[in-house]
Amino acid sequence: MLQNYSSAVEFYLLGFYGSKEIHHLLFATFVFLYLVTLMGNTVIILTVCVDKRLRAPMYFFLGHFSLLEILTTSIIIPVMLWGLLLPGVQRISLAGCVAQLFLYLAVGTTEFALLGAMAVDRYVAVCHPLRYHVIMNSHTCLWVVVVSWLFGFLSEIWPVYATFQLTFCKSNLIDHFYCDRGQLLKLACDDSLFTEFILFLMAVFIIVGSLIPTVVSYTCIISTILKIPSASGRRKAFSTCASHFTFVVLGYGTCLFLYVKPNQTQAAEYNKIVSLLISVVTPFLSPFIFTLRNDKVIEAF
What we know:
The protein has 301 residues and is mostly helical. It is built from eleven helices and three strands; from the N terminus they run βααβααααβααααα. A three-stranded mixed beta sheet has the order 2-1-3. The longest helix has 34 residues, at 94-127.
């Protein structure tokens, strides 16, 4: 524990509770999920880069999205695995905590921006097929990806800066497996209500802001698909959007529960479960979601 009003210069991650046997079981499980995530997303990236049949905008975005999924897991899981192997709590420096939180939030924000762009891409493909290659040309796709990356990393500079301007004098024990912002705010001696409110508004802007074009796009897509007279035509049209739609429901659902809340300091166990879904389970499932229902990717693979 730290003396009052002296801010922490390092933190200790409490990680997961339980016996050594439980830790070993969790370690084996997360290693398996991590390796499959790395392998699956790497295969998607290589397949998109190598196969000429996958030069469409949809697969260009998918390659970047797979890279983001690799980064998401690599920012969190190695630190978590190291904590499961070590007895007791795990130490992380203040600089390491800042870097981990910033990279995690920046990569996540970039994913949301790219998901919104992918939804618009599917809208143009289904609702304006004759103009698809004119609208979604290579210049447009490159611009969309660059803006998504820049927006993701630039938009998280202030939130992370504001978080670490607080004085962490209550304790230096973080009840989590990574430097979670909600748990950090619990350690602050300053009045963090205003900071939490601004962080809440930014989370709404980022998550809901990228969700709006997704909802509008899929409303138009569903309306267009329902007008197709043949059942086989409707199935074919929806199959081009099914994987993206599935991931949108999974990804947005978990993040809305974690970040779009006025109170950022919710219970630690709740935080851990939702964080596992975002940083471990979702990246693990994404290669299967984007490939098993996509005939072109399976054929190219």
